[in-house]
Specification:
With about 725 residues, this protein is of the alpha/beta class. The protein folds into 4 domains: about 300 residues, Rossmann fold; about 160 residues, Succinyl-CoA synthetase domains (Rossmann fold, 3-Layer(aba) Sandwich); about 80 residues, Dna Ligase, domain 1 (2-Layer Sandwich); about 110 residues, 2-Layer Sandwich (D-amino Acid Aminotransferase, Chain A, domain 1), CATH 3.30.470.20. Helix content is about 35%, strand content about 20%. It has 23 helices and 30 strands. The strands form 5 sheets. A 7-stranded mixed β-sheet has the order 3-4-2-1-5-6-7, with helices on both faces. Strands 9-8-11-10-12-13-14 form a 7-stranded mixed β-sheet, sandwiched between helices. Strands 20, 25, 26, 27, 28, 29 and 30 form a 7-stranded antiparallel β-sheet that branches. Helix 7 links the parallel strand 12 and strand 13. Helix 21 packs across helix 23.
Length: about 725
């Protein structure tokens, strides 16, 4: 068997890595501190009952198990060989595995692509051997994996079997970094989360994160998959797997480094891999309802919610507290995270009235006051049931002050019992930082399956992800992605002159100003007479990308004499600045009326695919970077929603007496531009700047445009250095 199938079409089978029945440890040892000894200990802790072969040329036996002298002494077709050997011996070991038809290998050793040119060459040779021999090689530079469901650890870490009797769907962790895998593993275990798999893929010389996702997405015992990546090597395959996970009711939570330019540089030096464009990744994974989080804690906090509450809420947050001061703080936290705190419906207020003190403020957040100490089961129960019955509330956060141990336990018990009686998600926040809790506290919340927090920021941050995910799922269900149509190839490849690009955009349904290209002053006068004054003159040549810098733009030309003088001034100015440039002519256009300036663009990411960008012009984009991104095949409804996320959205909606802009026309233009990108493989980049939006019902105009295309090619699904990757 050889692994010659392109990764995007099917990838590398990993079943023998995940569920081996025969395992060999090359470099097995009796010294407790060594990788070989720790790998043996992990298998013993999990009571692995398959065939186990120990390889050590200097020992006859270890822990009563006989040792083989070399890999060549193994029987044929062993499922997995774990390599606990120095970097210098790794290539020979992989060659030996090939001779014995080994199905898979785990290479813990570092010192390959992450170290420079020599390491890259050696890793590439390892990749070639594995592919030619059909070895599903995990690593190098990895921490291995743990299959908790079947009790199989292929790691030297201090992992232990998951608690017996835990049969509910669980969490799988897939991380390019071994260190991050360990961090997430420990955090999950601390919260009592059921684990199905924990996998570190390392440098990904052969097997990638996507290969494991392909297996785990269909695993009935896994509901949530947490992924840490410095670079997803097969973006199109990842997006397809994310879509499949969504269709199966499963969620991928992704922590992806590289948001900042410095992080991307760190990824290159740390992993030997080229970081993908973060904006493209963020846009397109979000479109598939992947939950993209910002920090390590959010991975497990969000995963806990998603595991405990498979029905994703889409309303707002109801907050119950026993601290009046926390009401204002909670509203601040929620506004910062974009979490809606809805006003309670009259029926909900009436349901509360009989159970709350007469002086209580029956609003959201709801302060139970100190009276809650008199009747914890009654007041917490009534409050939780009333808020759960409110149609605008999709999740409840119960915030508790610390107290004596018996008080803490009584509050937790009352909340847990009430939470069992409602259908909406309920989470607990115990204020007081890291102050110690009674030993029974965690047992109460874990038994009740209540997400439990000691930090308000972490609690509301996780709830924000829960609500956003619910809205994305609703959007995916209600608005199907439009299918691409026939290709609309630009008139020629390369950078188009403005008049060429705008004419092409006009054919696609994006309005442009009236006008035409003049090649003489006489033609200019004819065009101006036809369209009417005032007009704008723009020098035209594909090579002239910054027209204003060389006097190539003159606006507000109000008559024939002004036009004749402007023609002479422009041609002289451009010729003086660029004497070797031959102009195609001068574009004469009707000067636009004022409106809201926007920037509309699109680009084809070489790995993730096409996406569009929309933002307000001027200071909004230049200084504040106020833009949103959408998939190329987006809907008008999605564009409208994203427009309202702009910081300057009020300018579009109408402010200080100004009329609202034609948001419908803007949305239609975004959809048309996106379709152009999706339907035209040759198209690399479009930039319309500015796009003027007139008052509602009056449309838009593309005043300037840059269009870049190249001969069509098959999209590249992986970076230049395939098989090179992350470090732990």
């Amino acid at each position: 068997m050889t692994l010659t199938t392109p990764p995007a079409a099917g990838g590398v089978p990993v079943a023998r890595l995940l569920r081996p029945r025969s395992i060999a440890i090359l470099g097995a040892s009796a010294e407790p501190a060594t990788i070989g000894a720790r790998a043996i200990a992990a298998l013993e802790r999990f009571a692995f009952d398959g065939d186990l072969y120990l390889i050590n040329p200097k020992r006859d036996a270890i822990n009563g198990r006989p040792c083989l002298r070399s890999v060549d002494d193994l029987p044929l077709d062993v499922d997995v060989v774990m390599m606990a050997v120095p970097q210098a011996g790794t290539l020979d070991a992989v060659r030996a595995c090939a001779r014995r038809r080994v199905g898979a290998a785990v290479v813990f050793t570092s010192g390959f692509s992450e170290t420079g040119t020599q390491g890259i060459r050696e890793q590439q040779e390892m990749t070639e051997i594995a592919h030619a021999s059909g070895i599903a090689l995990l690593g190098p530079n990895c921490y291995g994996l743990v299959n908790y469901t079947d009790g199989i650890p292929l790691t030297s870490g201090p992992v232990r079997p998951r608690p017996s009797g835990a049969g509910e769907p669980g969490l799988a962790i897939v991380s390019q970094s071994g260190g991050m895998m360990g961090c997430l593993l420990e955090a999950a275990e601390a919260k009592g989360i059921t684990l199905t798999y924990a996998i570190s893929t390392g440098n990904e010389a052969v097997v990638t994160a996507e290969d494991f996702l392909a297996e785990i997405v269909d695993d009935a015992r896994t509901r949530v998959i947490a992924v840490f990546a410095e670079q997803l090597r097969h973006p199109q395959r990842f997006l397809a797997l994310a879509a499949r996970a969504r269709a199966l009711g499963k969620t991928i939570v992704l922590l992806h480094s590289g948001r900042s330019a410095r992080a991307q540089d760190a990824a290159k030096s740390h992993t030997g891999a080229m970081a993908s464009d973060f904006a493209a990744m963020e846009t397109l994974v979000g479109h598939q309802a992947v939950v993209l989080v910002d920090d390590i804690e959010q991975v497990i906090d969000t995963a806990e919610f998603l595991l405990d509450f498979p029905q994703r809420p889409t309303g707002g947050l109801g907050i119950i507290t026993d601290s009046g001061a926390f009401k204002g703080l909670a509203l601040d936290f929620c506004e910062r995270h974009g979490v809606d705190v809805p006003v309670l419906q009259p029926a909900s207020v009436e349901a509360l009235r009989g159970a709350m003190p007469t002086f209580a403020d029956l609003s959201n957040p709801l302060d139970l006051t100190a009276q809650v100490m008199r009747d914890m089961p009654g007041m917490y129960g009534s409050a939780i049931r009333a808020l759960a019955g409110d149609p605008n509330i999709g999740c409840i956060l119960v915030t508790l002050l610390m107290g004596a141990p018996q008080v803490v336990l009584a509050k937790l018990t009352a909340t847990a019992e009430a939470a069992r009686t409602v259908d909406v998600p309920v989470a607990l926040l115990m204020l007081g930082g890291d102050s110690p809790l009674p030993a029974e506290a965690h047992e109460i919340v874990q038994r009740a399956r209540l997400p439990f927090f000691r930090s308000a920021t972490r609690a509301i941050g996780a709830i924000a992800h829960l609500f956003r995910h619910g809205r994305r799922l609703e959007r995916c269900a209600s608005s199907g992605t439009p299918a691409p149509g026939a290709a609309n190839t630009p008139p020629r490849f390369g950078l188009l002159a403005e008049y060429e690009g705008k004419a092409w955009l006009a054919d696609a349904g994006i309005p442009i100003p009236k006008g035409g290209l003049a090649r003489s002053p006489e033609e200019a006068l004819e065009i101006a007479a036809t369209i009417g004054y005032p007009v704008v003159l723009k020098a035209q040549a594909a090579e002239l990308t910054h027209k204003s810098d060389v006097g190539g733009v003159i606006i507000d030309v109000r008559g024939p004499d002004d036009l004749d003088a402007a023609w002479t001034r422009m041609t002289r100015s451009v010729a003086a600045a660029l004497p070797d440039l031959a102009l195609d002519g001068i574009l004469i256009e009707k000067m636009s009326a004022p409106g809201v300036e926007l920037v509309l663009g699109g680009r084809r990411d070489p790995h993730w695919g096409p996406l569009v960008m929309l933002g307000l012009g001027g200071i909004w984009i230049e200084v504040l970077k106020d833009v949103v991104f959408l998939p190329a095949l987006c809907s008008v409804e999605e564009v409208r929603t994203e427009l309202q996320r702009l910081k300057g959205a009020a300018l579009l909606n109408g402010i200080r007496g100004a009329p609202a802009a034609d948001i419908e026309a803007v949305s239609q233009a975004v959809v048309r531009l996106g379709r152009l990108l999706a339907e035209t493989p040759a198209l690399e980049e479009i930039d319309i700047n500015p796009l003027i939006a007139f008052p509602a019902g009056q449309g838009i105009l593309a005043l300037d445009a840059v269009v870049v295309s190249s001969p069509p090619h098959v999209p590249k699904d992986e970076p230049e250095y395939a098989g090179l990757g992350a470090t732990p």
